[in-house]
Amino acid sequence: MLYQAYGRKLEIETGRLLYRGGPLDNPALDIRAVRKTGDVVAGVKVIGDLQVPELELFSQPSLPQEDQLSYLLLGQPMQSASGSEGQMLFNAASSLGLKGGNLLDAVNTLRIRYQLNKRLSVQTETGTATGADIL
C-alpha cells in the first residue's frame, strides 16, 4: 500500500487503527511509512491517538533528524538540497510538529482515507477540527 505526502510516495509498512473501548472517533494509531533511496530507508511513525497524533522520523542507517526528513521528502541528504527545497523541508518540519525537534508552534492534521471499493471510501480527519466523511 502506498501513501503520498508532499508529492512523494511512501510505502506503508504498518497501518492500524486500534479501538480499545474508547470513543469510535478517537482510535489509537500505529502507522509506519517509508521511502527507500539507495542504501537509505527513511520513514515516519505515527503513534498516539487520532485526536493527538505524534510523529517521529527514523532512518536506517541512523541519520540526524534533518537528513531523515530530507531523505523522506527529497531522496537526498539536506546538504544537497537547493534553496527552495530547503524551504520546503523547513515548512514540512514546522507543520508536522516532529517529536524531539525544537520547532515553531505547529498545527498537526492527520487525514486517513480507507478505500472500500472503486467508488466508496471513508475518510477521517483530525486537527483544529475532527470529522469523518463517506465519499
Fill in the keyword field for this structure.
five-stranded antiparallel beta sheet, 135 residues, 2 helices, three-stranded antiparallel beta sheet, alpha+beta, 44% strand
Structural summary, described in words:
- The chain is an alpha+beta fold.
- It has helices at residues 65-73, 83-96; strands spanning 2-5, 8-18, 28-37, 40-49, 52-60, 110-115, 121-126, 131-134.
- It starts with a strand and ends with a strand.
- The mean pLDDT is 77.
N-to-C order of helices and strands: EEEEEHHEEE
Count of spatially separate domains: 1
Radius of gyration: 16 Å
For the residues shown, what is the average pLDDT? 77
Shape descriptor reads elongated
Question: How helix-rich are the residues, as a percent range?
Answer: 10-25%
